[in-house]
Amino acid sequence: MAKDRSQSSDYTGPLRRLLLAVLVLVLAAVFLLWRIDSPRVERFRAQITDRLVPNLDWAMAPVTGTINLLRDYQSYQRLADQNRELRSELRQMQAWKEAALQLEQENARLLDLNNVRLDPRLTFITGVVLADSGSPFRQSVLLNVGARDGLVDGWATMDGIGLVGRISGVAKNTARVILLTDASSRIPAIIQPSGQRAIVAGDNTAAPPVDFLENPDLVRPGDRVISSGDGGVFPAGLLIGQVAADPGGRLRVRLAADYERLEFLRVLRHHGNEQVSDTAQVITDSGPLPAGQDNAETDDQP
Amino acid sequence: MNDLSQTRLWLMRAAFLFLALVILFFHLLPLTTTPSRWTGPDLLLAFACAWSLRRPEYVPALALALAFLMADLLLQRPPGLWALLALMGCENLKSRGRNLRDSSFAVEWLTVGIVIIMVMVANRLLLAVALVEVPHLPLVLSELGMTLLFYPLVVLITHGLMRVRKTAPGDLDAHGQRA
């Protein structure tokens, strides 16, 4: 017996080592391939996720529900406090509601006066959040709508109120949304009312900082941050949040979307911004003047 | 007897993959969509270490590689690198298993701790060399600390609940022979 065993381990030892070497090489090759040709491997990753995660949904939904129920139960213990807070908030809200109603009427009147038609192409698809990124280092969620529903990489995603993120990675049945809080998220934004352009750059914290601000003095905490549509990827004018200053004095965005509970998300269909590519031209009797001529004359004058 | 232990061997191999799937399942639950300041332990690595030290035949290299690669793909990590390092760490532990069999738990904890730290340091270094964005350091440190803290619990579960124990003298091994 003992001899038999030693022989078998003699036999399997090198084989096992060979298998290990092959595995190590394969894994290293996968990493190198990812480093060289990231989009291809990311597509592969999206397909794997697409196969696996929707199949787990039947189990995920009840477990998530139960855990949320338990969490809610903890919050019931602070019910009295919450009730008092809610009541005081409600009083403030009623004042706001009155203001909002008046503004709504005024807005409707003005729209009517100007004969405005809102862009009918800005429609949306609503998806349910299937899973989160699974790791604390990445901030993303997986939606149950995908290429099947006509989703395209780069489309904006909102909850009912504010921008949540952008689609990155579409498989057949699922799509991944990179949240604004992810360290790789960069969204061109405009800050109202000063009209300053900036970039909202995620850094894995709850409130992403505002980068590349031209003149920080013009921006005050409480200003609204909306998407600017620069770069043509995103539709313009989506609410992102409000400016807030952190204790270090750095300007950050307090996001309007409720990141605590992301359950249903809207994906906005976006067909590209209209680009004005022509420069201004003067039409004369002998046809339009070339655009450069006008500039050349003005250059000569000083 | 031989048939029975063969069945058990394959059952336990399947059980490890199932365990990996369960851990990933709980990772993927959409519970935390806000960034957090700390992280939970890397349970998959901890369980893989505990099983590798106790019953290397239950966690063959192929199963380990498969589980780690799956975790890489599903958890949005650079695919392959973490799997490669964790696999090498576990294989290193397997080769030490025989020496560690008679020593106390503290020694095991220390050994596993060193291996996990090596894996994390190597991961960070190689990511930096490949010019990939490295994860936020405090988060990585908290993951490391939590993994080390939770390791005794993982061993307790492995030993008590899953009945994956070190081979004692006189036990039958996977091939129905005396160890």
From TrEMBL, chain B:
Q: Which key words tag this protein in UniProt? A: Membrane, Transmembrane, Transmembrane helix
The root-end lineage is: Bacteria, Pseudomonadati, Pseudomonadota, Alphaproteobacteria, Rhodobacterales
**Name of the protein this chain belongs to:** Membrane protein
Membrane-spanning parts: 9-29, 61-88, 109-132, 144-162
- Identify the domain of life: Bacteria
Q: From which source organism is this entry?
A: Sulfitobacter mediterraneus
